[in-house]
Specification:
By secondary structure, the protein is mainly beta. Helices cover about 15% and strands about 40% of the residues. The protein has one helix at about 1-20; strands at about 20-25, 30-35, 40, 45-50, 55-60, 65-75, 85-90, 100-105, 110-115, 125. The protein starts with a helix and ends with a strand.
Length: about 130
């Protein structure tokens, strides 16, 4: 019984540690750099790897009820690439509601991230 408790405690502790440095969208500051907390794979065969540094350039709200983060990949490996928009869930372990955001690569290693305003206080794709 003691062994089961210790094992369970370890899993709970490790799950909380993995989210400890993950920021929420409202934590992100303009002109600051953050590292990705997960790998993002695009259909074009390009990957933004976990740990890559991305600078947040601006935050806009558009005509639609969507928030738009414009960001830039600091170590640009594919400056001519443009990708289709894909959905990425920053918190796939939360099954209460889908927190997916739309991510798109634009020419010059610029990255567009679209999210619903209701998810602004939820976990982001970045670590602080």
């Amino acid at each position: 019984m003691k062994k089961i408790f210790i094992t369970s405690f370890f899993f709970v502790l490790s799950a909380n540690v993995s989210l400890a440095n993950t920021s929420t969208w409202n934590d992100l500051e303009i002109n600051k750099s953050y590292s990705l907390n997960q790998t993002i794979r695009f259909p074009e065969g390009v990957e933004l790897l976990s740990g890559e540094i991305i600078e947040i350039l601006e935050l806009n709200s558009g005509e639609a009820p969507v928030l738009y983060f414009q960001a830039h990949l600091e170590k640009c490996r594919f400056p001519e690439l443009e990708s289709d928009m894909i959905l990425v869930n920053p918190n796939p372990n939360d099954t209460t509601h889908d927190q997916s955001v739309a991510v798109q690569i634009k020419r010059g290693c610029n990255i567009g991230i679209f999210l619903e305003p209701s998810d602004f206080y939820e976990l982001s794709l970045f670590e602080i």
